Write the structure tokens for this entry.
Amino acid sequence: MNVKKHYKQLVLHTWKAAFCTAGIVLLFLACKPSGSETQQADMLSLALMGGAAAKDAAEEPVALDLQDIRKRGRLIAIVDNSSTSYFIYRGQAMGYEYELLTRLAKKLDVELEIKIVTDLDKAFAMLQRGEGDIIAHNLTITKERQEKIAFTIHHNEVRQMLVQRKPTNWRSLTADGIDKKLIRNPLQLANKEVYVKRNSSHFARLRNLSDEIGADILMVEEDASIEVEALIRRVAEGEIDYTIADENVAQLNLAYYPNLDVSTPLSFPQRIGWGLRKTSPELLKAVDNWLLESRKSIDYIVIYNKYFKNRTNMKMLASSSYSTISGNQLSPYDAHIKEAAAKIGWDWRLLAAVVYQESKFNPEAESWMGAAGLMQLMPETAEIFGAEDPLDPRQNIMAGASYLQWLDKFWMDEIPDNDERIKFVLASYNVGQGHVLDARRLARKYNKKPELWEGHVAYFLEKKAEPEYYNDEAAKLGYCRGSEPVRYVKQIMQRQARYAQLLPEEAAPQSQEAQPLIASAR
């Protein structure tokens, strides 16, 4: 769609909406006793402005600031699934902005919750409603956006670059020969189709550039939910000829697609920052102070270089089938994990989170206590649940899953709620059900709820590290460093939630008996 056509459709749409609203009000006036002309004129003006007023009201940000976030206990970050923002590689969350966010959350003494939203309009709406606290999207700071939201100080400066394909015989050409076949002057974009994400800073820049060169650039608006990196890939594969990307993202993608050229700038340097609500001034102040301090640190330089300078490493990360950028696998053992999860009726991503927590997908992992393999089975447990060779990936995963199923049956009568019971199962897998039973007895003694985990049984499991509680007659097994199983449960549940955001769910059959299941085991 060219610029003139775009504006024409936009104006037509606006007037249609206005007249539709006005028509409803006029119909209402026709059915009411006649009032003064002034009143009727006011009603008509209200009708014409109603759509805009309603939109403004809908975008009014909630009053939610740093103290509320600390009270809640977590910072909610809205991110993009991209090699610069957030992705998962071999089960581990990664990304330039994600790593910065984890350090910010630690500084604020809160947990980090991630929400993946590619559509910026949705991201802005979620921010204003309080469903997120910060947008970390490689976000260009523009005047238009500053009218809606607040921005942190910038943590990067980039230009917008034209992404185009080199000629097919580029390897046999000189640099000058390649240049002659590529667009090096924005004037050459006249009447060229350029694909951009709708409502992005790239779309706005292309619209302004069309005015500046005095010719139509044929802007093709892609859905707001599309990834910029997906458009870059389409250029590399020859599906489209041109798109626009921020310089850091464009340079990074050269590692994956050497047939691309990203050397033609279409803008002056622009600032990249994080977006916050205007009703969060204390959060903004805290983030700005942290950014000013962090940008001077070696840690920040290491993170930046890791994602934007070390192209060989990023090519390996992003092109791997075990990366959520280009694949949908977590590990080489996904087939075994899915098989075992289907057998016990679990979400495979939850079982994968357990495997990662235990061994980071290392089938040869062994602990000083003798636990071995992907699910860190003790020799006795491996034998009971059928793993003749605990270092064999399939045997280890199937035996570990059978043990988890046994624990699930152990707690089924006491903890009827499935979602709640899984936390007791995971804690028991980590520390043994005896200490969890102690914590339940303590919870009951101190008028807490022994069938609830968070704030009840988990609280007293942590308390079992204190003499007052591990010496209590209700604590039959005595001392336990309970913070470890509590953290274990929390980390697995968080990891499973992140896997679920990026990886598809597999349809699982009804739960089957995992063999062997030894009823006398404790």
Summary: The first helix runs from residue 3 to 30. The mean pLDDT is 86. Residues 70 and 110 are 6 Å apart (CA to CA). The longest strand covers residues 134-140.
